[in-house]
Specification:
single chain, alpha+beta, 6-stranded mixed beta sheet, binds magnesium ion, Phosphoribosyl-aminoimidazole Synthetase, Chain A, domain 2, binds adenosine-5'-diphosphate, about 35% helix, 7-stranded mixed beta sheet
């Protein structure tokens, strides 16, 4: 059987099922934005690892080493944000082709540091190897949180409201622009979208506030696309969901530049990955507290739908009715 037949998530499920049940000190193993392990009473360890491969995740003809370093860390910070955890320690493994320059690696680490420092993250180790051809980066990020306050993908209940921070689709459109600029100077709107793609902002303070105040019952970061990431919440929480297409938040720059037919802009916003916004479920009686909290956030929050019973499935509705889900899937590494 070929990997493409089972897909990325089929493979992960296969790996998970081939291992015996984990020890009771594993509070959350495979299946969330980060793992949570108990080290004893008090704080719990929250860990995540990510692999980035040249020509799969990034293309060195479109991204400079400084933003590449910065973004490599940002995507991991986003996974801890989605747990409501506090990031602390960083391990970096690199495989580098010898054609790359020392200035390249200096800039890569400078970019990473620029995001690590203000977030209180220390580099504590890693591993380095040569690579025959492409560059590989693997980042392990460790953080802390208390089991009672952390937010998992499970925990959403029918009747909960679904919210998302910021706007969606900017990153996908930014990537599309980067591939089509061909040396032309970008307009301010284009620059905004390029920045959303190359320099995403992990929603750490927002995730921590939602967790500490017990406002979110389930949460994930939008890395593969809203539809795919909501699907993970539905699977882990054993629920269904309804999304109102016309409520999906879009930035003014996105709206003015998206190459979609009028009324279909939301499809880009729903399918687009790498926005690194937070998607979360909250009970309706928290709506006022949430609105008050989000007033302090530049990114804001938008209510985009509702958690439904499992039997409802995952449904996106536009003004004409339910939308065919096959057009909405996000990224799968083997598909
Ligand atoms: P995210 O997009 O939030 O980084 P992923 O979709 O990459 O999450 O991973 C989903 C879950 O599967 C996570 O718990 C991750 O740790 C786990 N996982 C992914 N690949 C592997 C692997 N090769 N072995 C074990 N667990 C894995
Ligand atoms: Mg994630």
């Amino acid at each position: 059987m070929k990997l493409r037949e089972i897909g990325e998530f089929g493979l992960i499920a296969r790996i998970k099922n081939s291992w015996p049940a984990s020890s009771p000190r594993v509070i959350q193993g495979i299946g969330d934005d980060a793992a949570v392990s108990s080290l004893g009473p008090g704080n719990d360890l929250v860990s995540t690892v990510d692999l980035l491969i040249e020509d799969v995740h990034f293309d060195l003809s479109f991204i400079e080493p400084y933003p590449l370093g910065r973004k490599s860390l940002a995507v991991n910070l986003s996974d801890l944000a989605a747990m409501g955890a506090t990031p602390r320690w960083l391990l970096i493994s690199l495989a580098l082709p010898s054609r790359l320059s020392v200035e390249f690696t200096d800039q890569f680490f400078a970019g990473m540091q620029a995001l690590a420092q203000p977030n209180g993250v220390s580099l504590i180790g890693g591993d380095t190897s040569s690579s025959p051809d492409r560059m590989f980066v693997s980042i392990t990020l460790l953080g802390e949180g208390k089991k009672e306050a952390l937010v998992f993908r499970h925990g959403a209940k029918p009747g909960d409201d679904l919210y998302v921070t910021g706007t969606l689709g900017d990153s996908l459109l930014g990537l599309h622009l980067a591939k089509n600029l061909r040396g032309r100077a970008a307009s301010p709107e284009e620059r905004f979208l390029l920045e959303r793609h190359f320099d995403p902002t992990p929603r750490l303070q927002e995730g921590q506030a939602l967790a500490e105040r017990r406002l979110a019952r389930a949460m994930i970061d939008v890395s593969d696309g809203l539809f795919s990431d909501l699907y993970h919440i539905c699977e882990e929480s054993q629920v269904g969901a309804l999304i109102w297409a016309d409520r999906i938040p879009q930035s003014p720059a996105f709206r003015s530049l998206v190459p979609a037919s009028p009324g279909e802009e939301w499809k880009w916003a729903l399918r687009g990955g790498e926005d690194y916004e937070l998607l979360f479920a909250a009970p309706p009686d928290k709506a006022e507290d949430l609105a008050a909290l989000a007033k302090e956030w530049p990114c804001g929050i938008t209510r985009i739908g509702r958690v439904e019973p499992r039997s409802h499935g995952l449904v996106v509705r536009d003004e004409k009715g339910p939308v065919d889900p096959s057009s909405l899937k996000g990224y799968d590494h083997f598909a």
